[in-house]
Amino acid sequence: MEVKTKVEDRTLTISLRGDLDHHAARGLMEQTDRLMEQNLPSKTILDLGGLTFMDSSGIAVILRAKRRMEALGGNLVVINIPKQAARVLETAGLARYVKLI
Amino acid sequence: MRATNYITIEFPSRSANEGFARSAVAAFAVQLDPTLEELGDIKTAVSEAVTNAIVHAYPDTLGKIVIKARIQEGNVLEITVRDWGCGIADVERAREPLFTTGGEERSGMGFTIMESFMDTLRVTSKEGQGTKVTMRRRIAQRAARR
Questions:
Q1: Residue B141 has what pLDDT?
Q2: Which of A25, A80, B45, B59 could form a disulfide with A49 if both were Cys (CB 3.0 to 4.6 A apart)?
Q3: DSSP three-state, residue A18
Q4: Does residue A22 belong to the interface with chain B, where contact is any CB pair within 8 Å?
C-alpha cells in the first residue's frame, strides 16, 4: 500500500492507495502514530480515495487514529470513501464514532 | 449439494497471502457473472476469514490454510476456509460484534462482516484442532436483475 502525507497549518493529511488489509495495517498504524507524534496536528484527514480494497483492518486503523487524535486534543476526519470500504464502515456502524465524509 | 465447478487453494498463514486468497476466490467467482458490489462482498468476506486464521489460529507459528470454493446449482457460491490451528473456545462469543482477542490491531468485526456480506455463515471449531468457516452467497442471475 502506498501512503502519501501532507502537513499544512497543523492539518495532517494521509492519503492511502492500494489494498488496506491486515497485512498492510500494522505498518500503516506505526506510520500514522509516528506522523502524529512528529507533527502534533490539530486535525488529521484520512483520505481513502485511492483504496482498491478495505476489510475490517481499516476499522482498527481508523479507530486507533481517532484515539491518538483525541489524546492530542484534535480530531480525525475520513474522506473520499470508496463504495466497498463504505459498506465495511457502515456494517461496523463507524459513523457513530468518526466523522465520515 | 452437487458442485458444478470447484477450486482448492492451500497456502501457509503468511499475511502476504491475504490479497492472493481473496483475489483468487474473486477470479473464480467471476464465472457467476456477479456485479462489482457482489464481488466486493465476496472478497471482503474471504479476507476476514483468512485474516482470522492467520491472526488467531496460528498466533505464534505458520500453519496450513485451505480454501475451497464451489459453485453449486442455483448460482450459489460456497466458500470454506479451514485451518488446523488452536481453535476457538467459544464460537458464539467470538461471533459477537466487537469481540476480539487480537488487541488494538483487530476491530472484532470480522464475523459480523462475513455474516452481513454473505447469505449464510457457519463456524465449526474445536480447541487444539482448528476451525472451519463455511459461507454461501447466491449470485443473482443477470436476467433476473433486468
A1: 84
A2: A80
A3: strand
A4: yes
Domains of chain B: 3-145 (3.30.565.10)
* pLDDT at B104 exceeding the cut of 80: no
Span B45-74, pLDDT tens digits = 999 999 999 999 999 999 999 999 999 999
Q: Any residues with CB less than 8 A from the CB of B62 and at least 6 apart, and which?
A: B12, B13, B14
Amino acid letter, residue B68: K
What's the pTM?
0.92
Residues of chain A with pLDDT under 70: none
pLDDT of residue B145: 58
Is domain A2-100 given the CATH code 3.30.200.20 in the classification? no
Q: Are B99 and B108 in contact (CB under 8 A)?
A: yes
> Nearest by CB to A59, which of B19, B43, B107?
B107
> CB distance from A26 to chain B under 8 Å?
yes
B40 and chain A: CB distance < 8 Å anywhere? Answer: yes
* A10, A43 contact by CB (below 8 A): yes
Cβ of A56 and B48 within 8 Å? yes
Q: Where are the domains of chain A?
A: 2-100
> CA–CA separation, B134 vs B99, rounded Å?
20
Dihedral over alpha carbons B98, B99, B105, B110 (to 10 degrees): -70
Asked whether residue B33 carries a pLDDT value surpassing 60, the answer given is: yes
